[in-house]
Amino acid sequence: MSRAARGAPQDTGVLPKLRVEGLRKVYGGRPVLDGVNLSVARGESVVIVGPSGTGKSVLLKHFIGLLRPDGGRVFVDGQDLWALGVLQRNALRKKFGMAFQEGALFDSMSVYENVAFPLRRSRRSPAEVRARVEECLELVQLPDVGARRPSELSGGMRRRVGFARAIAHEPEILLFDEPNTGLDPIMTDIIAEVILGIRRHLPVTIVTITHHIASALKIGDRLALLFGGHILFQGGPQEFMSSGDAAVRQFVEGRAEGPLTVEFQKAGHKQVWEAR
Amino acid sequence: MTRLLEAVGRALLRFLEELGRFFTMLGRVLLWAPQPPYDAPELLRQMARVGVQSVPVVFLTTLFTGMVLALQTHHAFAKFNATSMVGSVVAISLLQELSPVLSALMVTGRVGSSMAAEIGSMRITEQIDALKALATEPVHYLVVPRVIASVVMLPLLVVIGDVVGMYGGYFVAVQLLGSNPVAYYENSFQYVDLNDFTAGLVKSAVFGLILSVVACTRGYYTFGGAEGVGRSTTQAVVAASLAILLSDFFLTRLLF
């Protein structure tokens, strides 16, 4: 698929799990997302890549309704997220698990309570909750930190606990906001392995944001390059790596010169405002 | 001249924006308060924070207010031989006005600031987004318990403040200035009716609502990192204090 693919949402024949249509978001008069179309099929893993400040996190937050679009629509299982009432939208979020860039752990609670938080209203017994929390913490290789406070953990550990919290209630859709940025190469690969492991056991739909090309190729069925408010390119890992598209080549090869840099300079180096 | 008008216009817009946020938050609190699940442990924790932990500060504030009030009115009333009325003045002032207002201002400084700072830092570290992502409405989880706790606990603090303040007045008038204890006691209640007491409680419940909604709203709309949290905290205390004093005037007009 090439640049021309940015126009129409993918038609997979079946109802996509997630879909955004003509998504627009403006910050400070500048459109950060300018008509983004993207569908994610049930059970698919899509990785959104792109340089910093291009609105990847903003796009991810639209999927779960943390941000309200200025234009366009967001569909979850075919339901228009913003046509729903506030209670229904809230209920729909139970399908999601989201891991945030810096973990976003609740610092008034222990690590254990953080991971158990999504399970507190579930039908699980206290023993089952405990077993599940321990299982999730073991999965991110942090079996002995349950009693600690988030402030006592390193940045990487906090992010892994955030990851454990996101998967605790076995959601249908997982959103990962830069799950491996700032982690050492081994932990980066472990996180990618954990994501693959989840996929092996559950028909979960995953959207991940990362700069890390190796992880993206490992966990993604499809890679989408977001830049200048559009999806510039989307395709499978092989297609992505062998693409002749100048922007994709620049990103894959990590070169300072290229179409991405030119566009970036045109935009006046403005960073995307912190999504609120 | 144009600049002046611009500045006035901008300030007015900011004020209206704040007012809009306040009423939007109030509406959301009213919408979410009846929704299950009810988090009783969190509500109790907030009640302990707003109420129990504020007892010492309210105790001292109202004690010294009652004492100063007795001292001053005694000196003033001595000039026209009316010191027997000191008890009435102390009781009416405390019940109607000073105990509710001063308790609310002290709780604003103590608890309102921490509500704004806590919710503000949760905002800037994406914890509010994380709550939403975990299908937990932040207003339901964070704001509703704080508002209910403030509305319930402030009147209880004021009851303590009323008793302590009146005792402070009694202590100064009788023990230090030599008034007749029986006359002072009888005078204290002679011109006071139940309405003075209940109206003070109604006022304090409204102040509790105002201070908690203002503080939580300021925290909720925090932006701009650690500096933003500091700004929100200051603004919460200033705005809530002013709102308490302003609403006090209208409530007094309405209730007495």
Provide a short characterization of the protein structure:
The complex is a heterodimer of chains A (276) and B (256). Chain A is of the alpha/beta class and 276 residues long. Chain A contains 10 helices and 10 strands.
> What is the helix content of chain A?
25-40%
Number of domains of chain A: 1
Low-confidence stretches of chain B: none
* Mean model confidence by pLDDT of chain B: 95
What share of residues are in beta strands of chain A? Answer: 15-25%
Number of spatially distinct domains of chain B:
1
Shape of chain B: elongated
Name the largest protein-protein interface in this structure: A-B, 29 and 19 residues
Report, as a whole number of angstroms, the end-to-end distance of chain A: 33 Å
Biggest β-sheet of chain B: count, sense, barrel?
none
The CATH architecture category of chain A equals: 3-Layer(aba) Sandwich
**Highest CATH level, the class of chain A:** Alpha Beta
Rg calc of chain A? 19 Å
How is the largest sheet of chain A built, in terms of strand order? 6-7-8-3-9-10
